[in-house]
Amino acid sequence: MVMQTNSSLETDGSKWTAQRSAAPPRMVIRPTRGWAALRLGEVWEYRELLYFLIWRDIKVRYKQTVLGAAWAILQPFLTMVVFSVFFGRLAKIPSDGIPYPIFAYTALLPWQLFSHALTESGNCLVANQQLITKVYFPRLVMPVSAVLAGLVDFSIAFAMLLAMMFYYGIVPTAAVLALPLLLLLAIATALSAGLWLSALNVQYRDVRYTIPFLTQFWLFVTPIAYSSTLVPERWRTLYGLNPMAGVVEGFRWALLGKTGATGVLVGVSALIVSVMFVGGLVYFRRMERTFADVV
Amino acid sequence: MSDVAIRVENLRKQYRIGQRERYRALRDTLTEAMYAPFRRLRSTFQASDAQRPDDDHIWALNGVSFEVKRGEVLGIIGRNGAGKTTLLRVLSRITEPTEGCAEIFGRVGSLLEVGTGFHPELTGRENIYLNGAILGMKKAEIDRKFDEIVAFAEVEKFMDTPVKRYSSGMYVRLAFAVAAHLEPEILLVDEVLAVGDAAFQKKCLGKMGEVAQEGRTVFLVSHNMGAIRSLCARAVLLKDGKLQQDGDALDVVQSYLSEGIRNGYAELHRDVSLDAQFLSIRVTDRNGTVTQMFDFSEQVRLDVELEVRKPIQSPYLTVSIHTSLGVPVLFSDQTGDAAQCLSSPGVYRIQALLPGALLAPDEYMVNLGISSSSEKRVVHNPKSVTSFQIMPLKGRRARIPAIIYVDFDYRIERCS
What we know:
- The complex is a heterodimer of chains A (295) and B (416).
- Residues 1-22 of chain A have low confidence and may be disordered.
- In chain A, 65% of the residues lie in helices and 3% in strands.
- With 295 residues, chain A is mainly α.
- Chain B is an alpha/beta fold and 416 residues long.
- Chain B has two domains: 4-107 and 184-257, 3-Layer(aba) Sandwich (Rossmann fold); 266-390, abc- transporter (atp binding component) like domain (Coagulation Factor XIII, Chain A, domain 1).
- In chain B, a hairpin with a 4-residue loop joins β16 (362-372) and β17.
- In chain B, α3 packs across α4 (139-153), α3 (124-135) packs across α5 (168-180) and α4 (139-153) crosses α5 (168-180).
- Chain B is globular.
- In chain B, 38% of the residues are buried.
- The A-B interface holds A 1-3, 14, 23-32, 48-49, 51-53, 55-56, 59-60, 63-64, 128, 130-137, 203-206, 289, 292-294 and B 2, 15, 19-20, 23-25, 89-110, 112-113, 116-117, 119, 121-122, 126, 129-130, 133-136, 138-139, 184-185.
- β3 of chain A pairs antiparallel with β4 of chain B, so a sheet runs across the interface.
């Protein structure tokens, strides 16, 4: 367990008072009342555990599969093929002048990252209940690792995108520099939803059944198979309340040079995500103290 | 002040009964409903000594206070549900107390289970790192101790095999090996010694002993009274969430075990349909003092009460002893003239004296039997009616690698 050595961090819950190097660290355990402090520093102290949990998820993900990591490409790629045939060819959904396959694939990348991260983080506390009831660590480590583990799949699928961009002869503009920020936004969206869902899942197992439905529903309200320009102008701000709308359109803007209502969407998304994220953190920390008893 | 490792003040932990199942699936709710009357019974019983007389809550810990000095090895004993595990969970911060507080001075490591977080798909090597990190070790620390851990677990050849292919023994050895190399200043251990084969258990006990000698503070929850007695100087006895006794490990273990006898270990259930039956059995030392703990060289006396209700033709009395794992160790009988007096109705007291320096340190169970040898029928044959323990040896003869020890009549001569 990691202790503070030269700084002191005091909260209304547990107090961690640091002392001079020779004296052992002192820790007080007492019941917390009301809203607990976030204690994000503690998550940093446990970064090695975070690293090992991510590493475990990655190691285990494609164990005993024939195709292995190819699944990371196959999942978005096959979805893209289906979308291209039905929405692009048959339904002739406009793709803002971009070839439909790459239009869909660019959106599917952050979407797959998001939906996978949402599912994994939503179930992480229940799936790891044997850890939670037997060992102490800041519980936040759990959903964070579940979300971050998805980045490996994302990178593999991203390589495929580069190949497709080369094939279609699309050269990214300077806007590509905004990509890391958009990626961060996607992760933050998944994590903030994951925080709420995982904490709720501990109490109400209904959440487990809600998650597949939720992701499916969310897929349709996100401009993946279609463009957000299909949404009438006056509804667009409301549409932006879905943070993934901003992320997906942002990706198209950064990689494919698509213009349109992106700025507004991304702005609204970022705002919504910040609120959801802080709310999720506070709720998670509040519920955390009962996880081991209830899970 | 500075030599205190843990100070616990009026620690209380309340669990809401029904909390666990309130929001679960309907199927669960239905099965729980069947058990509900019993739980209700228990909760009212428990609530009688809680401050809030509330049916829906039990106090798993109900006002526990004590102090542990640095370097002390404290044993925690008590029946199931006495609050031992809850205490460890609160001290290792897995769950919060409801009231009271605890102060801990030093790095805490807790072992509530061996192999927490082991992943079956990962190899032995990978699991050492994962499990180590979960238990709170730094990567550098695991790197340094890696070889030692592998050697301790005796699984060198299988380091790159997924642990799902391990035998359960190998799995447990690896898991314990990681845990045993945890080096916190304060170690909280729950019943982990109850794993592996006997030889590995001995090794684990040895490792725990080493830990204690290095001056680290150890909290040991165990049902293995031998382990408590040999590792701990001090022990606390928990009962219904309260601290019942705190003192010298030997005394606390004794009173815990003798409480078991009073509670019916030795009183046998009366069944008047039997022609004869054993009423009670007491395990005492040679002077008749009730105890269940014996030194290796001490004699063990069994005091048995037998009621004969209908005449038995050519009575045949048997006593047999097996280990706690069920291995038969010895058998003794009484027949012929000596047992003949048992043939007529009455209550008899039978005393059997086991020689000292015979049974190796372990826990033993006693079976009794009364039958009629001419009618070839068993009248009463109660199994595992009581138990006693032969304490670990001290001094030169550290270990007896068998169950029976016999002092042969040796003759040693020099031939050349």
